[in-house]
Amino acid sequence: MASFVSYTTERSGRRWRVWYKAPDGRRAKRSGFKTKREAVEWYERLTQDFREGTYSSETQKRTLVGECLDSYFAAALNLAPATRANWESVAKNWVYPDWARREVGSVKSTDVEEWLARIMRAPREITRGRGTMLATAGAPTAQRAVLVLQRAFVYAIKAGLIHRNPALGVTVPDIEQHEALDHDRDEGDGPPPTGLRNPYLTFPQLLTLANSIHPRYRLLVFTLGTTGMRFSEAAALRKRNVDVVRNRIYISRAVTEVKGQLYVGPVKNRRPREVPIPAPLRRRLAERLAELGPDDLLFPSADGKHLRIGLWRRRYFYPALQAANAELLAQHLEPIPPITPHGLRHTAASLAVQSGANPLLIQRMLGHQNITMTMNRYADLFNEDLNEVSDKMAALFDQKTMEAYGQVVSF
């Protein structure tokens, strides 16, 4: 049972206080009600929370968001090293500064929406590498920041501190497009080229680039540009993962570099997949496999270890790109657009579309979570196919065909 007691203060005048027994048996109170009716209505809502198991004490609600986020990261043992490093960086720059000292029970959805608009519009000083810079949160970063904040409230719910996640339902403008653009990238692959949504190489450009790089990595470039696998996945391949008889490469592991340390773990989405081996690549892979032991890396570094994308990109890929463009320009051919190694994955998708491959098969080859991601990521390629559809439909209505069926149409 509860008791309702009136009291008087010099500043506020007459007020009402509710004394009640909390679920843990302690005697608790809530003060400041203007009328007894207001106090009774509050107590009725409280007893409903008791019955439904959604009650949280005022002390629990005063737990800080920063403490919940610390506890989440400490308990999240299944996070991949690269994901953990990325999320902790996002938390440090975008979440902790605004939420570390907020009481978890005081946060409303509108607070999260206002914070999201603020970090996307107002520049702030963030840590980048060993220095700092002024920046706003782009859509991919904002999405991660919201996701990290959601995890803090998920932990608070599991701990019984609150019973609703105020960050759920908060979306980043145009996040679907930006997620498709950003999710697919290799860790450490560098920023996407300026001004190009998806840089694609033609098949002659791909061959020129492969022939311009150090001979040890020619097969790697050609493999990336024709199978669509990520660099991190190619760096983890071993002889046992390739079956030239069945014409398949089995992808289940990936190599990521976090703060100078290499980690070998599951592929993105934790979904192993098979990719087909194009005919021009099959013979070259067979020759390479004949030189390897069953557990040898398919594309090792010079010292026989896993490749590091940052070092490989600077030491081999970019110099090869310059040499390839010099050769193409000397032949009065179109140079290769600015790309990172990840651009070879886009090139494989482009070549697959040009070959008439079904979008669902392209999705499987690239390892995307769903067909929507594939269609959004390569919408420019599929839009070009609309012209082909139009031309084929026009052929059905050409004058000779119509006359053959006894129909004449004039416009």
List strands and helices in order, with pairings.
Blueprint: E1 3-9, E2 13-21, E3 27-33, H1 36-52, H2 58-61, H3 65-75, H4 81-99, H5 109-121, E4 124-128, E5 131-135, H6 139-158, H7 175-183, H8 203-212, H9 218-227, H10 231-236, E6 242-243, E7 248-251, E8 253-258, E9 261-266, E10 273-276, H11 279-289, H12 309-330, H13 343-354, H14 359-366, H15 371-377, H16 379-396, H17 399-404
In short:
This protein is 49% helix and 13% strand. The protein is of the alpha+beta class and 411 residues long.
Description of the structure:
The protein is an alpha+beta fold and about 400 residues long. The protein has 17 helices and ten strands. Strands 1-2-3 form a three-stranded antiparallel β-sheet, covered by helices on one side. Helix 9 (about 220-225) packs across helix 13 (about 345-355) and helix 14 packs across helix 15. The protein is elongated and about 90 Å long.
- Helix count from the secondary structure assignment: 17
Class inferred from helices and paired strands: alpha+beta
**Percent of residues in helical segments?**
40-55%
Mean pLDDT: 83
What about the largest sheet? 3 strands, antiparallel
What order do the helices and strands follow? EEEHHHHHEEHHHHHEEEEEHHHHHHH
Q: Assembly type of the shown chains?
A: single chain
Unreliable runs, pLDDT <50, ≥5 residues? Answer: 175-183, 407-411
Strand content: 5-15%
Strand order of the biggest β-sheet: 1-2-3
**Basic shape:** elongated
Head-to-tail CA distance between termini = 86 Å
What is the gyration radius calculated from CA atoms? Answer: 30 Å
Total beta-strand segments:
10
